[in-house]
């Protein structure tokens, strides 16, 4: 088995300065005597195939260079392969993306030099991974936060508006405020069935989504439980007046929000087919079943976590 790192870099993640950043990354890795091979993605979801080839070749340590989408696809490649136990694999992240929500839970700064410093120390945590199954039997894994409803709509809009650059986030938020209609979800878990008008239902492993917002309560990334947040009759107006609480995490105490911990949950939207997002990637629409795999993959994290 190779002790060396295998780098999967997304050259289009984040801003457009990739070649300059890649030079800096190579220099810093060499300075720290970190041994690595590398490959660049050439198309969307290419990470999945690249990570599987690397594991087949004997690599067990992977560095994801990019944003949350790149990391999500690396995680999916690892969960879908059959060459090694997933708990024998370690992922580190050098963040380049614009959102980069996963790193925030573990105090990893959005900074190339500091991220490489963290990799050289190699403190790891064995983190849970979520599994989503849509009604057409499509399986996706997630390492951060997934959900359906309003959050899925924003991710969908963002995809179509991304060509407008950084203003796309503002535009999709606005589109959501103006056009998103909540509907009735039937939510089934443990011995409960909740049927309610629902803005969105969130499934959390880590804390942050939507560029630093916190919808999940008392997150533990290794306890084998999904942190469920059901935003019920919450209006768009409620979101606007509570904008500060969305970032501080206090929003979970709002009277129209309920939180639970569970190992498996099914959400069946009753009339509409809302968009489903996982780690900020659009994965489908409509009904969904979510499970969790306890301590599935090792991740390199900050020493202060
Ligand atoms: N070479 C490529 N060409 C086109 N798309 C790619 C390529 N490599 C990866 N992708 C896709 O780009 C998507 C977005 O990447 P990612 O989320 O990492 O960057 P970002 O959108 O800039 O960052 P963030 O999600 O943190 O805001 C992923 O779905 C990934 O599969």
TrEMBL record:
Needed co-factor(s): Mg(2+)
The keyword Transmembrane is annotated on this UniProt entry: no
One of the GO BP terms on file: phospholipid biosynthetic process
InterPro entries in the record: ATP-NAD_kinase_N, Diacylglycerol/lipid_kinase, Diacylglycerol_kinase_cat_dom, Lipid_Phosphate_FormReg, NAD/diacylglycerol_kinase_sf, YegS/DAGK_C
Keywords: ATP-binding, Kinase, Lipid biosynthesis, Lipid metabolism, Magnesium, Metal-binding, Nucleotide-binding, Phospholipid biosynthesis, Phospholipid metabolism, Transferase
PROSITE patterns assigned to the protein according to its UniProt record, in alphabetical order: DAGK
Recorded GO CC terms: plasma membrane
Keyword Nucleotide-binding applies: yes
Domain DAGKc intervals: 1-137
Any one Gene Ontology molecular-function term assigned to this protein's record: metal ion binding
NCBIfam families in the cross-refs: YegS/Rv2252/BmrU family lipid kinase
UniProt xrefs under PANTHER family: LIPID KINASE YEGS (PTHR12358:SF106), SPHINGOSINE KINASE (PTHR12358)
Name of the protein in its database record: Diacylglycerol kinase family lipid kinase
């Amino acid at each position: 088995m190779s002790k060396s790192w295998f780098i999967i870099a997304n050259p289009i993640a984040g801003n457009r300065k990739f070649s300059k950043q890649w030079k800096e990354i190579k220099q810093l890795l060499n300075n720290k005597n970190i041994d690595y091979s590398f490959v660049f993605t050439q198309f969307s979801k290419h990470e999945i195939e690249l990570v599987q080839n690397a594991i087949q070749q004997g690599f067990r340590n992977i560095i994801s260079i990019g944003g949350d989408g790149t990391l999500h696809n690396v995680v999916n490649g690892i969960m879908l392969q059959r060459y090694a136990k997933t708990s024998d694999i370690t992922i580190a992240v050098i963040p380049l993306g614009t959102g980069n929500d996963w790193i925030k839970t573990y105090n990893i700064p959005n900074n190339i030099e500091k991220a490489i410093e963290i990799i050289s120390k190699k403190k790891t945590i064995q983190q849970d991974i979520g599994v989503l199954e849509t009604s057409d039997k499509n399986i996706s894994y997630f390492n951060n936060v997934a959900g359906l409803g309003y959050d899925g709509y924003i991710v969908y809009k963002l995809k179509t508006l991304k060509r407008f650059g950084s203003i796309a986030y503002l535009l999709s938020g606005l589109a959501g405020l103006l056009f998103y209609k909540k509907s009735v979800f039937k939510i089934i878990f443990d011995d409960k069935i909740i049927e309610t008008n629902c803005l969105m239902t969130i499934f959390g492993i880590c804390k942050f989504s939507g560029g630093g917002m916190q919808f999940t309560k008392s997150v533990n990334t290794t306890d084998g439980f999904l942190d469920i947040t059901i935003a019920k009759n919450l209006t768009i107006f409620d979101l606007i007046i509570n904008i500060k609480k969305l970032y501080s995490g206090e929003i979970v105490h709002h009277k129209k929000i309920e939180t639970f911990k569970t190992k498996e949950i099914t959400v069946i939207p009753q009339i509409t087919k809302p968009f489903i997002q996982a780690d900020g990637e659009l994965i489908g629409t409509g009904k969904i079943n979510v499970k969790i795999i306890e301590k599935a993959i090792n991740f390199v994290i900050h020493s202060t976590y």
